[in-house]
Automatic annotation (TrEMBL):
InterPro entries: NPHP3-like_N (IPR056884), P-loop_NTPase (IPR027417). Pfam families: NPHP3_N. It comes from the Eukaryota. The keyword Disulfide bond does not apply. Keywords: Repeat. Residues 83-254 form the Nephrocystin 3-like N-terminal domain. This is Nephrocystin 3-like N-terminal domain-containing protein. It comes from Candolleomyces aberdarensis.
Length: 430
């Protein structure tokens, strides 16, 4: 005989005879965000050295920039043995000298050695807008500490700080540094021998200003990007000066006036400067790089081993005037353009070279302009979606290289592309 209670659930029996059946309906409720989720919302994920956003970022070609990389990594590992130990290294040099490529390769090396703590690669025009804002710097560094296997106790303290003060991300950088980094480090001194050794920050000169007021309602002066860059340097100096902060800091930027003044003034006692000049023999590195590119092209196009002539290589290196980005762009142009390699190289050689101008970037200007001006519809490059044509690819490639900003005015005149403000607004809209 079947029971009245077969398959029944959620019921109460009161006394002998009364049965109350209850049907429960559970509606989905959004659970509170965890501390790690709150932190994750305030980072610039694309600014980390191994992010997908940086998958095409320049890296040093094998066997190039070896002396510079060795000097930086050697200082990170053994800087305490210097006669006058410093906590900060400033890697600087002109646009196109290879700073970002060097920093990317150094970050990879340090990660392989297990000594990389955190990275942040600023970028004015590449990728997401939060890569050009100071707002995301400290949370991004803190997030990487949370993810580091050797810093689990510190991670707990950082997440506890977020839980205690979820509004910390709206505070000024110094408060963020104190609550998200310095205080957690002070509370977790045990096991610090296994911690990583370095923080790498690239492209400080590309950090743009954050405006804190409603411009429509306020007459307050606009902050300049230099204001934010100096604020960043100030908090990094504070960190480096703290006895409980165990990391060396490598900062790479162009030698812009405000940054240079700050390093020469308030940060001088803590800073070792490494200027990318002829001492590091960039011409030899560029010759190695070009030979690698030419070897690939010879194999793919069945060209003789004597191609191209030695005088052609010397001309290209002379045109570069120490700017690694010039030979990198020549190599990329020949790799992706799809034409006859010899003809493409002749196009490059017909452009104005180092002999016609005292401006070291003039040959690079001419190369960029030629690449865009040879496109059927150069303005199309600016309004590209994710389905890039070759022309759109080239605009993105050129725009994302720092020296391109030097020559955008001339390209605007020749090619008719929008000005920098329009391009920036398009990037914001994306």
């Amino acid at each position: 005989m079947s029971s009245h209670f077969q398959n029944a659930s959620n019921f109460n029996i009161e006394g002998d005879t009364h049965i109350y059946a209850k049907n429960y309906h559970h509606y989905g409720e959004r659970s509170p965000k965890s501390s790690i989720e709150k932190l994750r919302e305030h980072i610039a994920a694309g600014a980390m050295h191994n992010s997908d956003e940086r998958c095409d970022a320049p890296k040093c070609h094998p066997e190039t920039r070896v002396a510079v990389q060795d000097e930086v990594v050697g200082w990170i590992c053994d800087g305490d043995s210097d006669d006058d130990p410093k906590e900060i290294m400033w890697v600087t040099g002109p646009a196109g000298s290879g700073k970002t490529a060097i920093m990317g390769s150094v970050a990879d090396t340090c990660q392989g050695k297990g000594i990389l703590g955190a990275t942040h690669f600023f970028s004015s025009f590449t990728g997401s807008a939060n890569r050009r804002s100071k707002r995301f710097l400290v949370p991004t560094l803190a997030y990487q500490f949370v993810q580091h296997k050797a810093m689990t106790l510190v991670a707990d303290r950082i997440l506890s700080a977020v839980e205690h003060n979820p509004a910390v991300f709206d505070h000024k950088l110094e408060v963020q540094l104190d609550q998200l980094i310095l205080e957690p480090l002070r509370a977790c001194q045990e096991g610090r021998g296994a911690w990583p050794k370095v923080i790498i920050i690239d492209g400080l000169d590309e950090c743009e200003a954050v405006q804190h007021h409603d411009e429509a309602q306020s007459n307050a002066p606009r902050r300049s990007k230099e204001d934010d860059q100096i604020e960043i340097l100030s908090v990094l100096k504070k960190a480096a000066s703290d006895p409980d902060f165990p990391f060396r800091i490598v900062i790479a930027s162009r030698p812009e006036h405000a940054i240079k003044r700050s390093f020469a003034d308030v940060a001088k006692p803590l800073t070792r400067e490494l200027f990318l000049d002829a001492k590091y023999n960039p011409d030899a590195d560029m010759a190695l790089f070009l030979e690698s590119k030419f070897a690939n092209i010879r194999r793919e196009s069945h060209l003789p081993s004597s191609w191209p002539r030695e005088d052609v290589r010397r001309t290209l290196i002379a045109n570069a005037s120490g700017q690694f980005i010039y030979v990198a762009t020549v190599g990329r142009f020949m790799e992706v353009s799809g034409g006859n390699p010899d003809e493409l190289l002749k196009q490059v050689l017909r452009l104005p070279g180092f002999k016609v101008s005292t401006d070291a970037l003039a040959p690079l200007d001419a190369l960029y302009t030629h690449i865009l001006n040879s496109s059927p519809d150069p303005p199309l490059s600016v309004t590209a979606d994710e389905h890039k044509t070759q022309q759109q690819y080239w605009f993105a490639y050129i725009w994302n290289r720092i020296p391109a900003k030097h020559c955008m005015q001339s390209m605007q005149r020749v090619v008719g592309i929008p000005d920098a403000a329009q391009v920036a607004s398009m990037s914001e809209a994306d």
